[in-house]
Write a structure and sequence with these properties.
By secondary structure, the chain is of the alpha/beta class. The protein is built from 24 helices and 30 strands. The structure holds shikimate-3-phosphate.
């Protein structure tokens, strides 16, 4: 247990929809003829890649909302895409869609991905598909058996495939190829991989036979459309089960988690390590067992993980390894060589990062050996863009006494766009919060800084007082992040426009129905919104959004929602935030509050310079000043400074001078906080 502060966890977390089921829900909906209603789909970057690829193949997939309908028109309408399918970071998108494409006679597609995906082995799926009669060309450097790769569909032959390792992606790909071509497929595996494909196919009328040896798809099967409710992803829930396990007190409720036994290995491992996990409200939804887990802290013991258990916890092993670093004694993981070909070489990456935090850990060819301890962990984590590493070490970083910086916190969007927000909520704004900033970590020999709440600097002021550009400048000078709350209003406007609802019919409630599609991400300089796990920066600045955003921003419940996002960001990392009510309603406890004022003429002049890009005439300034007076009257109730705010009159100072003053005040505040 930590010597610096206590972490008390509380509350409930509903991890987002299961990634494996989400990919399959979209693909199967696209293959059927008829309507599929999908509820709770994971709107993350990986799933987005599957949706975009299916659209490129000719399927009409609407925006990935909380609840939407895909109108499938069967396989006949699928065509070769005009350009390459961008699978981004997603192995599941690539392998499952390679299977589907292989069974579409006469059609072909080139698959591409990011640097991490392009390094991953595709021969494992290409070989059996070629044995069925598909043509697959690796189009990268000679000898490279990864992306880019072109799949040419054909009228396939049946296959009996005995895989040398357990892979749900390969199994799923062969089943989709067999379905598309109407031929028999038998897949045997040395150990059972996750069985979502089987469950979902059977729910759609396919006569699959499953036994301990594997799965048989008879020839000539047809898919019937069936609605899907996607349960919470157990791999995502595992991060919070780990947080609760390592906390000092309290409990976390993890709601509606998929408890499919091929996926729950991590919970079994945690139980073996001493963690208390109770299950409530267990039931079946859409062919998958689900339940709510209540996880409470424990005195953790090391354990051995290997054999048949590995496929049941393969994606959770980075988190398990981090928990093992906090357990008494040794933990040994073996038989997990598959980890070397995931989004990163997760054996090497976990070992090196744990070692960098001062943990005694030994790399094995197929796993690792970890000596648990209680010392503070201090250091910088290199994620290699691997979402599960960012989250596993993010959880360790949320423990009191640990100071861990993460190089690419934004990569969590691959599977869990709202991760940092949920983490901030789970640890509570007043406890020690997860730190995901990018400045270099102190050297491991430095004494651990004491736990503290993140620094919040609020900058308020009337309209056109220059809050936003000053705030970004101050944040840059202090090397902390600026929360761009305006971008969150833009993100809500963007999803409202995308929903197809006529802007005239927008009400706060309607606009907020799509709010779940918006997450936030940390860049080096800012906290910015994401839509469906993607940045969308350009679209958010587009003219359609600009036309409607001020109406959306005027809606009370919308302001409350944006304030919630901003508050969560400020609970997670050091921030400078500007906007109305920031120092009063949103962050009443901000450690430094600035209120900028300037006389009306000067504000009008600045606004026009910005808008017109030239020196305005006196007549133009007078007109603008009149409009500002009216706006000030409208805002009068909102625009009062907080009682503890420092008011700066900027009428006669340059922006550089204002920034200098605020930065000096911020540095003094930091010193004062450090001393207390
Ligand atoms: C997945 C299968 C697993 C898993 C991956 C998702 C799937 O990979 O690690 O994150 O959705 O089918 P393998 O197929 O390599 O086992």
């Amino acid at each position: 247990m930590s010597t610096l502060g206590r972490l008390v966890v509380r509350g409930a977390i509903r991890a987002p929809g299961d990634k494996s089921i989400s990919h399959r829900a979209l693909i199967l909906a696209a293959m059927c003829e008829g309507e599929t209603r999908i509820c709770g789909l994971l709107p993350s970057a990986d799933v987005h890649a599957t949706a975009a690829a299916l659209r490129a193949l000719g399927v009409s997939i609407p925006a990935l909302d909380a609840d939407f309908v895909v109108r499938g028109r069967g396989l006949a309408v699928l065509h070769s895409p005009e350009s390459a399918l961008d699978c981004a970071n997603s192995g599941t998108t690539t392998r499952l869609l390679a299977g589907l494409l292989a069974g579409l006679d006469g059609r072909n597609a080139r698959f591409e991905g990011d640097a991490s995906l392009s390094r991953r082995p595709m021969r494992r799926v290409a070989e059996p598909l070629m044995a069925m009669g598909a043509r697959i060309d690796f189009e990268g450097a000679s000898g490279h058996d990864g992306l880019p790769m072109r799949v040419h569909g054909a009228a396939l032959r049946p296959i009996r495939f005995v895989n040398t390792h357990a892979s749900a992606q390969v199994k799923g790909a062969l089943l989709l190829a067999g379905l598309a071509s109407g031929v028999e497929v038998v897949v045997a595996e040395p150990r059972r991989s996750r069985d979502h494909s089987e469950r979902m196919l059977m729910a759609r009328g396919v006569a699959l036979q499953c036994d301990a040896q594997g799965v048989t798809l008879p020839a000539g099967q047809r898919l019937v459309a069936a609605d899907v409710t996607v349960p919470s992803d157990p791999s995502s829930a595992t991060f919070f089960a780990a947080l609760a396990a390592m906390a000092d007190a309290g409990a976390l409720r993890l709601e509606q988690v998929c408890l499919n036994p091929t996926r729950t290995g991590a919970f079994d491992v945690f139980r073996r390590m001493g963690v208390r996990i109770e299950v409530e409200d267990a039931r079946e939804v859409g062919g998958e067992p689900i339940g709510t887990l209540i996880v409470s802290p424990a005195a953790l013991q090391g354990t051995h993980i290997g054999g048949v258990e590995i496929p049941r916890c393969i994606d959770e092993l980075p988190m398990i390894a981090c928990v093992a670093a906090r357990a008494a004694g040794e933990t040994v993981i073996t038989g997990a060589q598959e980890l070397r070909v995931k989004e990163s070489d997760r054996i090497r990456a976990v070992v090196e990062n744990l070692r960098g935090l001062g943990v005694a850990v030994e790399e094995l060819p197929d796993g690792m050996r970890i000596q648990g301890g209680t010392g503070p962990m201090v250091g910088h984590v290199a994620t290699q863009g691997d979402h599960r590493l960012a989250m596993a070490f993010g959880i360790l970083g949320a423990l009191p006494g640990n100071t861990i910086t993460i190089d690419d916190p934004g990569c969590v969007a691959v599977s869990y766009p709202g991760f940092w927000r949920d983490l901030a909520n789970a640890v509570g704004p007043s406890s020690h919060a997860a730190r995901a900033p990018s400045p270099p970590a102190p050297p491991p020999s430095a004494p651990p800084p004491s736990a503290r709440a993140p620094l919040v600097i609020s900058i308020d002021g009337p309209a056109a007082s220059g809050k936003s550009s000053t705030a970004q400048w101050v944040a840059d000078e202090l090397d902390v992040r600026h929360v761009d709350s305006g971008a969150f209003y833009r993100a809500l406007t963007f999803v409202a426009l995308e929903s197809g609802m006529a802007p005239d019919a927008w009400t706060p409630e309607r606009v907020l129905t799509s709010a779940h599609r918006i997450g936030w991400r940390l860049t080096a300089r800012s906290v910015l919104p994401m839509v469906d796990g993607l940045p969308q920066d350009e679209a958010l600045r587009g003219s359609a959004v600009t036309r409607h955003v001020s109406r959306v921003a005027a809606m009370g419940p919308v302001r409350a929602w944006v304030n919630g996002q901003v508050r969560a960001a400020g609970a997670a990392v050091d921030v400078v935030v500007d906007g109305r009510d920031i120092g009063t309603a949103v962050f009443p406890n901000a450690q430094l509050k600035i209120f900028l004022i300037a006389d009306t003429w000067e504000r009008a002049r600045r606004r026009l310079v910005q808008r017109l890009g030239r020196r305005p005439t006196d007549v133009e300034i007078a007109e603008e000043a009149e409009a500002l007076v009216a706006r000030d009257a409208q805002d009068a109730t909102q625009s009062a400074p907080a009682r503890d705010a420092i008011t700066i009159d900027t009428t006669t100072v340059t922006q550089a001078e204002q920034v200098e003053r605020i930065v000096a005040l911020a540095r003094a505040t930091r010193e004062r906080l450090r001393a207390t």
